[in-house]
Amino acid sequence: MQTISAYSAIINEAISALTFPAGSLEGLYSPITYALECGGKRLRPVLCLMACEAFSGSCERAVDVALGVEMFHNFTLLHDDVMDNSLMRRGRPSVMAEYGVNAAILSGDTMLTLATQLTMKVDDKHLRRVMDAFNRTAIEVYEGQQLDVDFEQRDDVTIPEYLDMIRLKTSVLLGYSALAGAIVGGATTADADALYKFAEELGIAFQIKDDLLDVYGSADFGKPIGGDILNNKKTYLLLSALHSDFRQQTLEALQLTEAQQKIAAVTAIYDKAGIRETAQRAIEQHSQLAIRALDSISFSEPGARQAFADLCENLINRSK
Amino acid sequence: MQTISAYSAIINEAISALTFPAGSLEGLYSPITYALECGGKRLRPVLCLMACEAFSGSCERAVDVALGVEMFHNFTLLHDDVMDNSLMRRGRPSVMAEYGVNAAILSGDTMLTLATQLTMKVDDKHLRRVMDAFNRTAIEVYEGQQLDVDFEQRDDVTIPEYLDMIRLKTSVLLGYSALAGAIVGGATTADADALYKFAEELGIAFQIKDDLLDVYGSADFGKPIGGDILNNKKTYLLLSALHSDFRQQTLEALQLTEAQQKIAAVTAIYDKAGIRETAQRAIEQHSQLAIRALDSISFSEPGARQAFADLCENLINRSK
Asked: Hey, CA dihedral for B4, B10, B16, B20, is it positive or negative?
């Protein structure tokens, strides 16, 4: 197995090698290049490459499928940013801010079809299985986004509802990445499904960690600290506070209009109510479920189990 | 072969039979039902069913693929309406107007993936060929939409550029519909390609007819007469006038601010410059190219050639 940064470099190189028609269609394709070049963790394609290599000794065959999932993920970001009116993304203007709403919509659509084309670059024997998983996952991601939007209008969202939403919005795409890489790598159905389960649980831990870093992260996380609090975003932390004895105080703190005061007040409640620890426990629970899912898998590469476990550790212990 | 309305009824029935998750995901799926139920000509799926039946004696096998192209077409309408800020569609509020911009975006995305799922419901032996054509066509449609958007900002668009734009934005999807139906029906590659050519030329004739009806159609066309003129839309008619001796007068008429005055002035120029006849000639040229493309095809159904020719006649002679 290779290092995370080696897999990440393979993806970045493959992205650089993508070519699009220039000239009169620049308006359609420039936003795509812009969206892809800005990096990010490349977590999904890395998972896909690792999965392929773990079962076949090489990640070569999964590169196009990995690019496909990165393309898909970035398509969802373009459209999510329009829906949320988000002007910043990964420390730069979002595609919507840089190129306009219409470009973000139409270039996003194009990315979804490009992602499908990349995903289809598998052997015929894997085509239907990989594409069925890709389409099913896409539908789940839209459903997750819909639930996320609906939750904004509700003040009675439960923790299980929240977990189901982030499973759809975030985890299933990590699950798919691992599954597709495993299929292309020649894994058995049982092993591919178990690796899906690993990545799905990892995704839930990853998202709760994301919620935690919004409040307790360092300022170079790419987003200002407390952004979720300012937006009344229903995170794992906020929902935990709303379901604790501090519900009333939390609701009052959310009414504050001055930004720093509001962040300080909500954070103080989190501290008093032990929300940080609650979230930390949830992260550990889901990462343990992830690691446990690895137990039954017969990898062909000896270091594979450890590599996935290390990836999990890195993600839940990250500081940004 | 069956009548157009029989094929159309098969599609409407299949659309009614589609089921979506209700309950908490109604926000995602209601706009899809709304978009599909409102009808329209069903031209694309009808072409698809006809093509399948023409080569196999039954349209049964093409129903899912036909639904897929109708789903795809409606997805593009949802997003186009957002990009154009169109509040009306087929005489009713557009999805954007009825459910909001975010719903039009996210439900549109969902429709693209649903279209892909429907399109994949073909035998394994046809899967890659149909899906490759579907994806390539989708990319062309986005490129056509981008050119259409770009043309709004330009005053030097030529007729060949316009024809290339409508080929991408409209014709290739008709071509795909015929091709996919033909493939599923067991046509040879040469016959499927020739039927693509038929539908592609038909699509160009169809779009120029659409441009013509905006000015010379009856008021129950679904859109108010002269809408394209009011929006300075670069139609075949307007571009023909701009490339005639009446260019300067046309530019001046476009400056008029009073709606009925502007429509009357531009229409008067079209009349003087013989633009109606120019457009009519172009429609006939392209419909002849379409009919000629049928010559080389070996249909298994005796009435197929005539059925396609009749479809073409109906579309170019329609009054709304």
From this structure: negative
Name the residue among A181, A154, A169 with its Cα closest to residue A66: A181
The predicted structure's pLDDT at residue A22: 78
Residue B207: CB atoms within 10 A of its CB come to: 23
Question: How far apart (Å, rounded) are the C-alpha atoms in residues B192 and B51?
Answer: 9
- Whether residue A104 lies within 8 A of chain B, CB to CB, comes out as no
The CA distance from A187 to A189, in Å, is 6
φ/ψ region of A244 (left if φ > 0, alpha if ψ in -120 to 50, else beta) reads beta
Flag whether pLDDT at B266 surpasses 60.
yes
Closest CA to A1 of A43, A51, A44, A63: A51
* B142 interface with A at CB cutoff 8 Å: yes
**How confident is the model over A94-120, as a mean pLDDT?**
98
Q: Which helix (H) or strand (E) holds A93?
A: strand A92-93
- For residues B49 and B10, the answer to whether their CB atoms sit within 8 Å is yes
The dihedral sign for the CA sequence A152, A198, A77, B21: negative
**Residue B209 C-alpha from the chain's centroid:** 12
Q: Does pTM surpass 0.90? A: yes
The reply to whether residue B28 touches residue A146, judged by beta carbons under 8 angstroms, is yes
A142: nearest CB among B109, B116, B127: B109
Residue A221 has pLDDT above 70, yes or no: no
Q: Which of A148-152, A185-189, B190-194, B248-252 is the least confident region? A: A148-152
Distance CA B196, CA B297 (A): 11
What pLDDT is stored for residue B220 in this prediction? 60
User: φ, ψ for residue B113 (rounded to 5)?
Assistant: -70, -40
A72/A89 Cα distance (integer angstroms): 16
Residue with tokens 């058995």: A188
Show Cβ contacts of residue B299 under 8 Å, excluding neighbours closer than 6 positions: B54, B55, B191, B305
pLDDT digits (tens, 9 = 90+) for A147-165: 999 998 898 999 999 999 9
Task: Scan residues 22-51 of B and list those with Cβ closer than 8 Å to A.
Answer: 24-25, 27-28
Q: So what's the ipTM on this one?
A: 0.96
**Cα distances (angstroms) measured from residue B240 to each of A225, B6, B157:** 58, 38, 10
- Give the burial class of A289: count Cβ atoms within 10 A of its Cβ; 0-12 exposed, 13-18 middle, 19 or more buried: middle
| SS3 (DSSP) at A290 | helix
Q: Report the residue from A21, A112, A128 with minimal CB separation from B127.
A: A128
CA closest to B82 among chain A residues: A102
The overall longest dimension of chain A from CA atoms, in Å, is 61
